[in-house]
TrEMBL record:
Residue ranges of every copy of the Deacetylase sirtuin-type domain listed in the record: 1-233
Functional note: NAD-dependent lysine deacetylase and desuccinylase that specifically removes acetyl and succinyl groups on target proteins. Modulates the activities of several proteins which are inactive in their acylated form.
Name this polypeptide is given: NAD-dependent protein deacylase
Source species: Mesorhizobium atlanticum
Annotated active site: H108 (proton acceptor)
Residues bound to substrate: Y55, R58
EC numbers on record: 2.3.1.286
Lineage: Bacteria, Pseudomonadati, Pseudomonadota, Alphaproteobacteria, Hyphomicrobiales
GO CC aspect terms: cytoplasm
Membership in a protein family: Belongs to the sirtuin family. Class III subfamily.
Length: 235
């Protein structure tokens, strides 16, 4: 597959208008849950049931939300420019793929997959993960964890993302606060390689100054307009 010319990084803000809470906005996930307890390997070792409950709840919520106009616009962009667009998401929901994005990297894993601690196999998993849950590959019981990347763990497919960033002409970050590395460093990698960098956010603050251009507004409004701009050749 040819290297993508356009790399789009997405964060929780793109799913906010679908009804998925962001992490660091007031009343976001980390205002209501202790990150150390539910999103670290140490938290899981200490209290696996608490961690499973947290992700079981989030997995159930995923069934009641739908992709919004921003996810759909990115899928449209990929369809219009086949082979040119890569979406790298920090989100563990499945709204990009449900909207139709196909060239997609879930760098922080997926709520809809489980990982077996006994054999290392990953498998699709839409139910709750419970003590009686059996790994479809090795049949071990009670050894499944959510296939999500916790703090202190290595995000997925970083080599592929690095390659894409050094070869792209346009890098856009949508709905992310840029608080978590390595994603927060992608803008510099793309910029160093000569790409135009654009941030789209409800409120451009903090890390926005690291981009060539900022577009402020709700994702469901600014992303479709941004996609139209690229498709009309003014990107
Ligand atoms: N449209 C556009 N942007 C929005 C909207 C919206 N409707 N609503 C909120 N935002 C923006 C906020 O302004 C904020 O900058 O989305 C961003 C969300 O930031 P975070 O909550 O920090 O989420 P994110 O950047 O995705 O977090 C990165 O942190 O906890 C971890 O693993 C988790 O993947 C996550 C990572």
């Amino acid at each position: 597959m040819p290297k993508p010319k356009i790399v789009i990084l997405t964060g929780a803000g793109i799913s906010a208008e679908s009804g998925v809470a962001t992490f660091r906005d007031p009343n976001g996930v980390w205002a209501n849950f202790d990150l150390e307890e539910v999103a670290t390997p140490q938290g899981f070792a200490c209290n696996p049931a608490k961690v499973q409950d947290f992700y079981n709840m989030r997995r159930r919520q995923m069934g009641s939300v739908e992709p919004n106009a921003a996810h759909q616009a990115l899928a449209r962009l990929e369809q219009a420019l086949p082979d040119e667009v890569l979406v790298v998401t920090q989100n563990i929901d499945d709204l990009h793929e449900r909207a139709g994005s196909r060239r997609l990297i879930h760098m922080h894993g997926e709520l809809g997959r489980a990982l077996c601690l006994a054999c290392g196999a990953g498998s699709p998993w839409m139910d709750d993960i419970a003590a009686q849950s059996k790994c479809p590959a090795c049949e071990a019981m009670g050894r499944l964890r959510p296939d999500v990347v916790w703090f202190g763990e290595m995000p997925y497919r970083m080599e592929e993302v690095g390659d894409a960033l050094t070869g792209c002409d346009l890098f856009a970050a949508i709905g992310t606060s840029g608080s978590v590395y390595p994603a927060a460093g992608f803008v510099e990698e793309a910029r160093a390689a000569g790409a135009l960098t654009i941030e789209l956010n409800l409120k451009c603050a903090g890390w926005a100054s690291r981009f060539d251009e900022q577009i402020e507004g709700p994702a469901t409004q600014v992303v479709p307009a941004f996609v139209e701009r690229i498709l009309s050749g003014k990107g």
